Inverse folding.
């Protein structure tokens, strides 16, 4: 009986270690459009910088949108309506794993009059699949651009 348990210990150790490692390689990228949303009509955008953004994600979003042909301004949140075709908000979540890295980014395209989200994109990359903030912004914006219309 004791020898059977002794042989089982290494197997259980390997299974335990492998189960801990599976949670580290998660990634997700998605985007949705509100029914009737027409992103082709958008020419101008205002990227709202949130108060706690110490990594200038608003500037990365601005630069990526400009590279796609939009006229973009950025700054603090202002009362609606914005004088643009959309306002852009974002939520960036950071994690520590040897170094700080962005684990998740959500970007919302909003109606400048009502602040209602017309398009939402999200990217989540854990430690083993991490991407740079620039790559995360690119991924989310590309997913929003290619999201199926409802």
């Amino acid at each position: 009986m004791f020898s059977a348990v002794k042989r089982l210990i290494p197997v259980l150790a390997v299974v335990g270690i492998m189960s801990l490692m599976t949670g580290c390689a998660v990634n997700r990228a998605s985007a949705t459009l509100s029914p009737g949303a027409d992103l082709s009509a958008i020419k101008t955008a205002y990227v709202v910088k949130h108060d706690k953004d110490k990594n200038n994600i608003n500037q990365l979003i601005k630069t990526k949108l400009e590279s796609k042909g939009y006229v973009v301004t950025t700054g603090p949140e202002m009362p609606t309506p914005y004088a643009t075709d959309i306002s852009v908000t974002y939520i960036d979540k950071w994690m520590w794993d040897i170094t700080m890295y962005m684990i998740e980014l959500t970007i919302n395209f909003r109606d400048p009059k009502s602040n209602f989200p017309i398009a939402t994109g999200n990217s989540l990359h854990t430690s083993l699949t991490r991407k740079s903030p620039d790559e995360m912004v690119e991924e989310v914006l590309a997913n929003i651009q290619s999201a199926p219309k409802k």
